[in-house]
Protein 1
Amino acid sequence: MKVVAIIAGIILVVAWIFYVASNAVPSWSSLSSGGYTYTYGLWQACTTYSTASNCGNINCPASGNDNGYCGRLMAGRAFMTLACIFSGIAAICLLVCGFVDEKISRILTIAGKVLAIVCVIMGIIGVATGGSAQQVFWQSYNQLNFTAGFGLGIVAIIINIVGFIVSLFVK
């Protein structure tokens, strides 16, 4: 049993949880105005007044003059989804690597390490483009606040980097 591989796998499972949460929550940015709070995520937008909240999907037209918002939002969605997928697969590879024989373990170790660094790259691009989409959307307001989803994405990247570094010590 390879303890380091199991530790790296567990760290990447935690990163996966943060990536999925970041991708799913409808609160990457928020704006409060006149008693209303507007929150936007990568997939949904919500309007809250008092205690009542109403959420709906964000639909981007195939073409339109949106100042690059939809393109950035779609890129953020794609890269965050890829980060979710790759971090999960990397975690599985490293966890399995901890329990199998040397021959299969070598292949899974290499796959886990490669997927872990690819996931870091996808996460960085996803958070950057998702955050950029939020900034472009709210550019005419001075009150943009990045919220939970954006923060979860940053934490996921940091945990993912730690998982990748730990995976480098797997023999």
Note: The chain is about 65% helix and 15% strand.
Protein 2
Amino acid sequence: MRLSLLLIIALFSACSHQNLANSFSIITYSPKDLATSVQFISHSQEKTPYLSMNIYYPEVNSIRLELEKKQKISLKNRGEAHITVLTPIEVETLKSYGLNMSAIDELAQIEKIQQIPFQVSCLGEGRLGNLKTYFLVVKSKELLKLRKKILDLALQINLTNQTIAFYPEEYFPHITLGFTERDLHIQDGVRKDETSCAISLQEKL
């Protein structure tokens, strides 16, 4: 009985130590630098068009490098940073109702997409088997408002008179940092919101 009790205590201590270690996993960043103003980039000519808010890459790159160092990993990255506002699938859906990418880009710039405020909640991790992706979980009421305005525009020019299968609230804004092999998405079972938080962020002094 005493031996069993000691084993239970030892296992509990080990688990507690692991949780404590995880709680000290912190990445530092500069909210001010992350919010540095950069120019809008249109993705209307991409093979799969999408709408995004362009993000100041040097600060995102700095966060990724610190993550790689602390986690002892090497991540692939795209050499740029953005917050997706409309996915390629959503753009294609809206196009089927008569709203083209040029009109979406125009509205985004009228609404000053590059000046929209956002906050970063944490550093998230998504997994699928041995595949991993890392990202900054973002919160922004203004980006959600922009998605709703895009829906309003689509409703105004709806050529089909059918209910538009675009849902502004189904939105998980994030900034991808890097991934082991490929990025993972909701189709892979990865939900990039606060449920995926893995590492805390701390503002640089």
Note: Residues 27-203 form one domain.
Protein 3
Amino acid sequence: MAENNLKPKIRFKGFSDDWKQYNLGEIYKFQYGQFNNNPSNGGIYPVYGANGIIGGYSGFNAENSVIIGHMGEYAGSVLWGKGRHFVTYNGTISVPKLENINSKYGYYMLYQLNINKICGGSGLPFLAYDKLQKINCFVPSLDEQIKISKVLSVLDSLIKLHQLKYDKLVNIKKAMLEKMFPKNGSKVPEIRFKGFTDDWEQYEFLNVFTMLQNNTLSRADLNYEQGSAKCVHYGDVLIKFGECLDVKREELPFISDDTIVTKYKASFLQNGDVIMADAAEDETVGKCCEIVGLDTQILISGLHTIPFRHIEAFATGYLGYYMNSSAYHNQLLPLMQGTKVSSVSKSALRNTTITYPKSVEEQKKIGKYFTQLDNLIKLHQRKYNKLVNIKKAMFEKMFV
């Protein structure tokens, strides 16, 4: 916000006039949407609740309008209703009183005002119109409004594009994790790379892996500044890391007390080792990470983890993705114990089986396929996050 409070920090060339101050009640008439007990009757007009489209209806009660949630969890949320649409009672329709207000600009202006801050109530949050009408806002000329709304609309389209690409890739990955590993006792997967026809191998867990030792250090015993060894904490396995943990790329904490490191020398982790989180508050218990990218760094498996090492050679990435597929993870579900916190024990793992193609080349293709898919997912996630941050900065600098 500029010093005189009437000009934004960044604006388009050719505009220099002060913005005009209003309260929202001078610009808009706010009115409730309408009750609708059948919002999905197959009509051509989208039906908006407080948090977006919930169906299609045969009639409409608004056109190119700004919709504000007025009750419940989404009280104060601001939506753009494109074209003709129907707004339910959970939404407030913002009807412009002034002719010099661009509808789309009005949406962005209301969006950046953080209206949810004025929503109160002893129980259910509620948007009080008397408070809403008193909120101060600043408006430029109609031409400048149109310029601002156009650039933000383009940015929104790009954000939506990368969100859709990200969602599509995540769904593809989920489907392929289901189809590229054999299930229900089958010896071949539903989808397979061309040129491979042999049955897959199936062995009990302890015929494939040897167990390693983990430490019992809490977060308080770790730091991100210095130490001779790093630690993989189960919380990071569950939330932060993917199927393959690239030690060179991910930030891992150091063990604060160097004197205890040698105690775990026999279990210093190697590339290809797998770490399983043995506790969680839901069925994500059993999530695994395969170690990759490790060179001379000492790495030890941490609290609430089960580390293990394959006996035979496996292609990089195969175990990381297989151990997180439903083909393996579903075997853990009946072995989990606990109510508020679920856990799986080392001894229980002996009751699971490991399935894999004998051909290391086929393993390699599977690992490479999912690694490339993950890289695309991360790419669109980064682009999405960058655009969201750009939009946030533009709201801060392009509005008074």
Note: The first strand starts at residue 20 and ends at 23.
